[in-house]
Design brief:
alpha/beta; 8-stranded mixed sheet; globular
Length: 308
């Protein structure tokens, strides 16, 4: 991949960033789209159908971002609870817009069947700048831990702490070509480590929890999404992004020990979607549709089994 820099243009190879390097990185991050127009405007249209809750607010310099979750209006403690999260990595566009599309077009099909909590854009600063990190150059999706360094993660953990049992959590993500051209080189530079180029999977895949993998659940989602977009094949080593493929389109991570958003609850059914938006075989709408298909298949699976 000749477009991957030999070293990142900020910092000194082999030396972790300090305040000066973080400041230089932050100066280069420019607003490219509007959280208010793209997300909050859609939320306003949904106020008559959901309970809209502001569960926090980010104060990043002059920028203030309300953090919004939508909950079933007719909450029933006898029903199973489903959590849908998007935009934990703000640059992963279909995670945000797929969550909003599900709320607008599909969530009504599950009224009276599940309690829904949907946080469509966990990292709005990153959404506006099309970046993986927050303003402090911290990855929110490695920050769902005690004493979290990311305000985005702390706010979502506080939202979920009093909820009680959650049956299902589906976290909507993308793997993009910029993971290799920008974000992994930036990570290596930030941490003073060598950058080791990898291979971006060509298609949709899932990340399950290695401590509770639920292979039938993962398979049901892959089958549903395969009707919308192509599923990523394993590379020559039988892997996806450096992890063994345990079933078609499925790898597993230890989600809690890695501090991933997928570990924010103790839900027995957990998965992270990974859409591939840079494929010539997938349109932006197809990517949103794939996210919705994954959410629907996940909910249908647990309901079909009468889980509570």
């Amino acid at each position: 991949m000749s477009d991957i820099p030999a070293f990142y243009p900020i910092g000194t190879p082999g030396t972790p960033w300090g305040d000066a390097e973080r400041d230089a990185w932050r100066t280069g991050q420019q607003v490219k789209r509007s959280y208010r127009d793209d997300v909050l405007a859609v939320v306003e249209r949904l106020r008559d159908r959901f309970n809209v809750r502001q569960y926090g607010e980010l104060h990043y310099g002059a920028d203030h971002y309300p953090l919004i979750a939508l909950k079933s209006r007719e909450w029933d403690d006898r029903l199973p609870t489903v959590l849908v999260t998007g935009g934990v990595h703000g640059y992963e566009t279909s995670g945000v817009h797929g969550a909003l599309q599900f709320l607008e077009r599909d969530a009504g099909d599950y009224a009276g069947r599940v309690n829904l909590i949907v946080a469509p854009c966990v990292s709005p600063w990153g959404y506006e700048r099309i970046h993986r990190w927050n303003m402090q150059a911290v990855d929110p999706n490695r920050s769902f831990v005690a004493d979290s360094p990311a305000a985005e993660a702390r706010a979502l953990m506080a939202l979920m702490e009093p909820v009680g049992d959650v049956l299902l959590h589906i976290d909507l993500h993308e793997t993009t070509d910029t993971d290799e051209s920008e974000f992994r080189p930036a990570l290596a530079a930030r941490d003073g480590k060598p950058n080791e180029p990898g291979e971006i999977p060509d298609g949709f895949y899932l990340v399950g929890d290695s401590e509770n993998p639920q292979p039938e659940f993962q398979r049901a989602i892959i089958e549903a999404v395969g009707k919308v977009t192509h599923i990523a094949p394993a590379d020559a080593r039988g892997e996806l992004i450096g992890s063994p493929m345990v079933a078609p389109g499925v790898i597993n991570y230890p989600v809690k020990s890695l501090g991933l958003c997928a570990g924010v609850t103790n839900a027995p059914y957990v998965t992270t979607t990974e859409v591939y938006p840079d494929s010539p075989r997938a349109t932006p709408q197809q990517c949103n549709d794939a996210q919705v298909a994954a959410v629907r298949a996940a909910i249908d699976f647990v309901l079909d089994r009468g889980a509570r």
